[in-house]
User: Fold this.
Amino acid sequence: MKCCSQCAGIERQFDQETASEELADYHREGLTGTSRALVEDLIAAGVEGATLLDIGGGVGAVQHALLAAGAASAVHVDASSAYLKAAQTEADRRGLAGRIRFWHGDFVDLAPEVAPADVVTLDRVICCYHDMPGLVRASAARAQRLYGLVYPRDAWWTRLSSRLVNAGYWLRRTPFRFFVHRTSAVDDLVRAHGFQLLSHRHTWIWQVVVYVREPA
Assistant:
């Protein structure tokens, strides 16, 4: 499998130290902020007995919450090997290891091998990926009922912040970049796969969006 520069940057940016710190925060505070909002909206839509595909799932907070709420199983795909290791450790600790499969790599490359799921989630993921259309198309195509996203608001202040953040990455000579994609472009791609908007809320920086597949 080829490794794009952004995926190499993800491995460097989300390393063992970052994963350990995030897992410690998760143990201390549990599910918080926009991740909690995403889970609440998905549970409200119904996840009992559902299969889950969690793309860029980090330490596993979203998948653990949805499994606890009644989802049957989960697949976690992540470009960060450190995050996957942390998620596996936490799944073992919670007794969930038998209900989660872990895949390492670029989801767009792996997508043809990944089975569809009832629920697909990308919690702060498309902001970390250079090819938003490719990622949204590949992930939405595998969502059978619900599709949940957390990504930056399309606003002047988020775009300015991204430029400043990326300048810092450039100075540190890391290939990782942060992206603020057009909300309308993301929405058009999701709707093109037969989804309609179910819920949408936001903070100053982030937006939490859940789509439901329209009846055939």
Notes: The first strand starts at residue 51 and ends at 55.
